[in-house]
Amino acid sequence: MFYRGYPDGREMGAKRQRIADKGPSFYANSPGSSFMYNAPPNGYASQPPHFPVVRLRGLPFDCTETDVAEFFHGLDIVDVLFVHKGGKFSGEAFCVLGYPLQVDFALQKNRQNMGRRYVEVFRSKRQDYYKTIANEVSESRGSPRRNIPRAKSYDEGKDSAEHTGVLRLRGLPFSASKDDIMEFFKDFVLSEDSIHITMNSEGRPTGEAFVEFANAEDSKAAMAKDRMTLGSRYIELFPSSVEESDEAVSRGR
């Protein structure tokens, strides 16, 4: 699994909510975390390693978790947390890395381009990351659809699209499993075989998946979940087809 700090593969958004409730020590000392700190032997005091998080500014507004992972290619990405203001993406994000030493490598990407925009990379602090988690979770517990204004043509395009029984999901946490997606669509009858999580050429999740419903009526009804949250992430839904799903899945093989 790509997230070395979370070998159990559980969805990151749900863990974020527990982090926000329990405070910083929960994350630093949770079992299986790569940030686990144990006191050295012989009674000598030592400071725990710095929390390995950087902040990015100037991201494209259509940026995805996959884009950030590719930007930091070669580093271990534990979490990408996009920052929203008033329900809109601010162009900023936090990126938690697998090890403190990787922060220096991430800073070398400062002012390098993502697409046509250069991205600024800064050192950040544990408390800033936690504060943003709390803000994002608070917003998601409210009305996730209310605070996400969209162009009229965007909604009309989805509403008028032909349904074939297949939906494409975008914006999934990299750690999302088929069980997480089945829980997201718990009002519909789905099997693991009907869910296809796409991978890139390196075998890592892209943040997208395709779901095959029993019929076109179910997939159209499932569009009511568009822009609702899986954990603390907004999930976008698009009408799709078996052909598009097969093509996307085959690219990752």
- CATH level-two architecture of the largest domain: 2-Layer Sandwich
Give helix and strand order, one letter per element, not per position. HHEHEEHEEHHEHEEHEEH
CATH superfamily of the largest domain: RRM (RNA recognition motif) domain
Shape: globular
For this structure, what is the CATH class of the largest domain? Alpha Beta
Count of distinct structural domains: 2
CATH topology of the largest domain: Alpha-Beta Plaits
For the report, how would you describe the main beta sheet? 5 strands, antiparallel
Oligomer designation: single chain
Mean pLDDT: 77
Task: Compute the number of strand runs.
Answer: 10
Helix content: 25-40%
Q: Indicate the structural class.
A: alpha+beta
What strand order characterises the main sheet?
2-3-1-5-4
What is the terminal-to-terminal distance?
Answer: 16 Å
- Portion in beta strands: 15-25%
GO molecular function: RNA binding
Protein name: RRM domain-containing protein
Keywords: Repeat, RNA-binding
Region (Disordered): 136-159
SSE topology sketch:
Blueprint: H1 12-22, H2 24-28, E1 53-57, H3 65-71, E2 77-85, E3 88-97, H4 102-107, E4 112-114, E5 117-123, H5 126-141, H6 152-160, E6 166-170, H7 178-184, E7 195-199, E8 205-212, H8 216-222, E9 228-230, E10 233-239, H9 242-251
Characterise this structure.
The protein has 253 residues and is of the alpha+beta class. The chain folds into 2 domains: 12-141, Alpha-Beta Plaits; 152-251, RRM (RNA recognition motif) domain (Alpha-Beta Plaits, 2-Layer Sandwich), CATH 3.30.70. It contains 9 helices and 10 strands. The chain has helices spanning 12-22, 24-28, 65-71, 102-107, 126-141, 152-160, 178-184, 216-222, 242-251; strands spanning 53-57, 77-85, 88-97, 112-114, 117-123, 166-170, 195-199, 205-212, 228-230, 233-239. A 5-stranded antiparallel sheet has the order 2-3-1-5-4, sandwiched between helices. Helix 1 crosses helix 5.
